[in-house]
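Notes from the 1:1 (GR / supervisor)

We went over the backlog. Supervisor wanted to see one worked example end to end before approving the batch request, so GR pasted a single chain during the call. The sequence is below; no edits were made to it. Supervisor asked that the structure be written out right there so they could see what the output format looks like.
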Amino acid sequence: MHLNEVASGLEPLDLTGSEELASLLTSAADLGIAHSKPSRYASRNTVVRHERLHFLEWGADDAPPVVLLHGVNQSSHAWDLVSLHLADRYHVYAIDQRGHGDSEWARDQDYSRDAMVADAIAFIEQQRIERPIIIGHSMGGGVTLALALARPELARALAFVDIAPVRTGDGGREIREFMERNVEFDHIDEFVERVRKYDPFRPLEHIHRTARYNLIRRHDGKLIAKSDRVLHEHDRPRGTPMSEITLEQVGAIEVPALVVRGEHSRVVTPADAQAFVDALPRGRFAEVAKCGHNVHTQNTPGFLEALRPFLADL
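Structure output shown during the call:
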């Protein structure tokens, strides 16, 4: 059973009058995030490559398109505050990647970078999204990078949030360990407390407001992580690694690109980020203070401050 509102079929579910949006507006007010009343905020499903993908759609049809790709064990809702801020100027598509959020779990258990890249390309083509700005965080940033190399004509611009092709930080291990240890919960407060200890940058009330998007109620009453159980297994089959892209290959990306690093990130070191920026022909760098790896959720105002001038220059 879902804890959040989600479209049950192919018809969009309008969320502009929902309690969930009201909760999001409270968080935006707490953080001082500017926004207009969204003209569209909808939960939607589609089928691409024989998989059902869920996505959130914001903004007007004729606005410039933005595609958002989340990190591992996260969902499209990780971008809610960002989407709310952008929705008055952009047509935003925030995708639940396969096995995450409210999308279908992959029947072949293929969660490789290549599979996710193929999903993203198929989604963009199916929805007839022309030259989107693609913003990817962590795992989603790896997908964005591989997509840009595979289909260089597809995107207008790119933003990579706390990801780099060469990473020497040890924060990836911490993420894997958190996922392996946090799969089932008796009560939502148990989940919130574990997230609070893992993520000291986010206010407790904001973790409470967003917990519903990470959990689903099983038939026995237990709350379980929404992401596919296999993703939480220590020895899961990993398919094509998210790395294996070289800095030399990055030099082929000709569109404007922004690399964003969290000040306290343990995944991407300052040297990793700088090497990535230097390899990009049109690369720019921004470091966001008072956050770690999950830049856009841990310091959303700081992330938007870094993103705005990049978007304005496009």
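Supervisor's comment: The CA atoms of residues 75 and 101 lie 5 Å apart.
Batch request approved.
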